[in-house]
Amino acid sequence: MKEISIKARSDGRIYHAEKGNLQLAPGDQVLFESDQCQEVAEVTSKEQESAKTDNQAEAEAVVIRRLSSKDKEEDAQKKAEARSTLVRCKEIVVKHSLPMEVLDADLSFDGKKLTFYFSAPGRVDFRSLVSELASAFQKLIRLQQVGVRDRARHCGGIGRCGLDFCCKKFLNGELECVTLDMAYDQNLGQMGSNRVTGACGKLMCCLKYELDVYKDGKAKLPPVGSELKSEKGKGRVVAQSILKNQVTIELADKTYVEVDC
Fold first, then answer.
1. Cβ–Cβ under 8 Å, residues 20 and 63
2. How many other C-beta atoms are found inside a 10 Å radius of the C-beta of residue 216?
3. Choice among 82-86, 150-154, 186-190 with the minimum mean pLDDT
4. Which of helix, strand or coil describes residue 82?
5. In the 8-state DSSP scheme, what is residue 247?
6. CA neighbor of 12 nearest in space, from 101, 130, 115
7. Would you list the domain boundaries of the chain?
8. Range with the lowest mean pLDDT among 16-20, 85-89, 138-142, 178-182?
9. CA-to-CA distance for 179 and 139, rounded, in angstroms?
10. How far is CA 70 from the centre of its chain?
11. Whole-angstrom distance, CA of residue 162 vs CA of residue 193
């Protein structure tokens, strides 16, 4: 049996799904059915042979079809319907005096499951809240707590660069862990963590997805500490300007010269 891995949009869960005769590739959007409802997902891996035997359970989900233009229109309508529930949901949260901020909502393709995304400073006991939400909307309710990066992606805003948040504009929450070492690889570590921190309070996303550009550029430049000849004489490299493809050298008379490489 041929299977693929898909990632559900509503909660990011990975399913091993039967694909039938469909020709699918990573990145394709599909409609799939689980034991709860029909949802939209993205293909994350190529097909592979199932390791299950006849005595084991079937795959966790079944892909129904690749998302068509009509499906996307219907999905957009479901998204609008989900967001129309936010006001009522927030009112119920206030009623229960819960320390949580409701950010967004998502409705499954068949309209059976309603997912609310929220942020909170810690764990929240929302059992009574789920019960009242289910009664209010007559749907299967899922509450999905998100971290500060996801909160920024849901809310949007302007980064220190003056542009829209990358996480909101194009990253779609797929970014891997960002570390301070990445800032040092881009000659930014000396600026201090507060200068490379985004509005969400975490290290800026661009430190990760721009890293390869800086590493490639850095490898092509003379390393700091090496000697280099210039039109004004021989000197020692004291700094690299990766994006300008330049280095700064210190001459014997303690003056500095920028040299194109």
1. yes
2. 10
3. 186-190
4. helix
5. E
6. 115
7. 2-67, 76-146, 162-216, 222-260
8. 16-20
9. 40
10. 26
11. 19
The chain-wide mean pLDDT, for the chain, equals: 87
Q: Indicate the angle between helix axes 86-95 and 127-137, nearest 10 degrees.
A: 140
The total of other beta-carbon atoms located within 10 Å of residue 49's CB is: 8
Residue 50: how many CA atoms within 13 Å on its side-chain side?
20
User: 76-146, which class in CATH?
Assistant: alpha beta
Cα(224)–Cα(239) distance, rounded to whole angstroms?
Answer: 6
In the predicted model, what is the mean pLDDT of residues 172-177?
67
**3-class SS at 21?**
coil
Complete DSSP assignment for 45-78: S--EE----TTSPPPSEEEEEEPPHHHHHHHHHH
Task: Quote the pTM value.
Answer: 0.71
The confidence band for 48, taking pLDDT boundaries of 50, 70 and 90, is low
